[in-house]
Fold each of these.
Amino acid sequence: MPFRRIRNGGILALLAIFGFYIILNLHEYWNYVEDSKGSVLLRNESTLRHYGELEEAPSPILETTLPGHGATHGFTFLDRLYARNGVFYIVTYNSTSFPPKLQMISQLKQLGGGYDLEKTEEELQFISPEEARTVLGNYFLPAKGVSVIINDPPESLNSYYQWWGEVILGFWRMYAVLGLYNGFTADALPLPERFILPNTDDEWRDYLHLNAPIMLAAFNRGQFTTQIVDRRIWLDNIRIRVTVVYERAILISRASALLHPLSVKYQNMVGSTMMLDVPDRFWEPIRTTTVQSILGRDIPYVDKHGITVNPPFPNSTGPVVTYISRQVAEERMLRQDDHERLVAALLELGSEGIAEVHIEYMEDLTFQMQFEVIARTTVLIGIHGAGLTHQLWMPATPKSTVIEIMHPNNYLYNYLMIALNMGHKHYMIWNDTVLTKEDSPEYGHTNDHFDNRAIPLHIPTVMSLVREQLR
């Protein structure tokens, strides 16, 4: 049995060497200091990718402030927001100078459940500078720049429309408002350093695979790219028992936003921001950066007539009209004969030289081709669905128009809200009836026909509207 003893001894020796190697490497990245709150990690490779070096807390601890015009239901900018053990802290002597907790942050378990929305101390606390020394400890991890903290569950983030048409649009609208009152133009606003998702890992990515790549394209200038800090990094910060201080943060909460009367009316979290004055063309910096990054060249320039003039498209006969078809979807599609008549009527526009017509099934196009078409589109037509979120990347001109089709007596404000923010005209089509914003019902509503697979459409009504927009 000597061989077995040697073999077992060799294995033990290898395990000892391997363990020693791990300890050496851990020591390189995990160093501890003693804090008033106990043992605290001073350095962690994962955390330092997203934050700076640990710093000794100032004395006295600086108060949190609310920048002017930086708050509405569900979207709250705060300078020097503190976080420890998963709880946010506002350090102040005067809590009444801030919005109520209910307007800033929500408990996840309460979304859609009809629960009492009063906050507990588990989400957000107000503490004085004196209390902060005891609660927050002696060492802070600084989060420089702008941090966007999205305190929503995965199911509120994992669609193209919810992420881009509500969360990011609402954030940028508020950011542009704040910039306006601080002397910034929309194209000069510093990009956020990080988007923080305390409650989701990869679930914010949508099934169309659009959210993540568009984020990389949109928040990218030169060598700088905004970081995504997901739940795993958030939990790392909790485990290392360190206080993070956000230089400037915006707290985003869907449940809080939906308490605003306009959000109730529009059933859309951006509604809470619509009472605030926003700079003209506030979205254009995001649109420009996104389209240029995705196409790898200058953004197409579309003139007031809807003609692409730079770079020139030799085969373009006029403004681009794009019909996004849902005929291969599992729900919400036109009656097949109405679809075929619509396609024929649109192609006739091309034959007459009135427009350059695209009949597109977006799922069949490459990522780049989708943006190639939409970045030149003047009139976008489609049944209510995620494809109409693409209007975010359409050029805003006097002719830019979104024509949304729904089964009669159904109405949702989703794409009207985006159109209002983009500067596009919006029309809702109920078969042979055209509704403008002024004709919209007091509140959005749906019935049993919302997802109908044979939505009726009166083609002369649609084509009359399209031709009118192109005159």
Note: The two ends are 96 Å apart (CA to CA).
Amino acid sequence: MWACRSFLRRHNHLITSRPRSVSRHHPTHTALPCPNLVSASRRHVSDATNVDRHQPAAAAAKKKHLYVVLDDHKKDYGIYKLDADADLRDGDVNTDSTTAPRLLPHPAHIRMEVTEDDSATQFAATGSCIVSTSCSPYSSLIHSGDCGVVTILYDIKTAALSISTHPTDTLHWGYAVAVPVGNRLYVLDLRTSSVDSFHVMTTSKDAEAAADVEVKQRDPGWYDGSGSSRIGWSYGGKARSWSELLPFDSDDIKGYAVHPQDCTIFLSAPVLGEEWSGANWRCPVNTFAYDTTTAGCWKWTRYGRWELPFKGHARYDRQLNKWVGLHVGEDGDGTTGYICACDVPSSDHDENRPLQWVRSMEKIVLDDPNQRRLDLKLVYMGERAEYCLFERLRCHGANEKECAVVDGEECVLRLTTFRLEYECDDPGYLRIMDRHARSYKVLRYRDDFEAQAFWL
């Protein structure tokens, strides 16, 4: 516990001091006595209390950016802040731009130090915050279990850092999905099918407690972690009967999205307790729903006997009035490479009738026989149906048998921005417009790390 509190009592010069360069490839960082440590580039950190909202700088502060999280250093993770106009849209038009990749802006916006036995570190985002969860080697000081799970919160609006521990060790092996809803993050871990594998985190614990009226997402009972005034964790607890088990396999979730009006989470996953069938011996996949406005209830209900048509996280597009994501492959485990736009379900939808959807006329994900794709994300940029396709690629044959990339492996980060419109001649298809691609040369050091990108 002392390690976390000492971190919070440290003076701000620890996160605003100028970094010193120790190599031409990577900036150094200021080490803090914390399980997962943070340092920041001085040029990006400012005192939010001194901002004059009537000055142009205030408008610039509201501008959103693409935040890219990479394991590009042996001893820390790098979070890079990319400008849409300067770093994304001035790339090649209608090409993959894999030739002559550039370097990312130097130094990184902020860096998080890696502990010696770093395990299951994952990044997500909700509201204006980037959230890191990881196992702590100092669990004996923080948590009386086999492993302590530490949460670090970085608010991109205020440059504030918060740290907390999770009340249980159920996130020791990481999570399958993390779904942002408002200032909350709903997490399904990889451990069991019991309700205690379902967690929710808030980034505004005290603010939610103070708002005792008109709270859309009611307080589920937060566990206090290391005295943080912002971070609160809650979870379903131990299942007391078979009815309290999750009705699906959280380790094999196909696609998921959030309803834009009532904040209900929808996801597709194999049904537990039903027989496998079909030529491919595949367990039936259904769609389930969870109402985030219910207090103290952790129950998922079956919404439809069909599968959502996208792979991974789909976002609601206000202009198209659709959920938009990467079209799921026929086997349910990959993507066809097309963009898919799907109807948002209504309360009276027939559980036996799949949602209507359309796809793009051309592929946005292009396969290269000389490269293997490590990460693939579709990021909604929220303006004029704009998106960014995030890909991290490596050459085939490089360190294929290595579990850890000790000396760093060179990869290509490809970012493709585009807009979506309905095809004029055929409204049953989407047209990909204003495509721009840019590639960056990056390093990676951990074979099991999943790179991320967030539009904040």
Note: The first helix runs from residue 2 to 9.
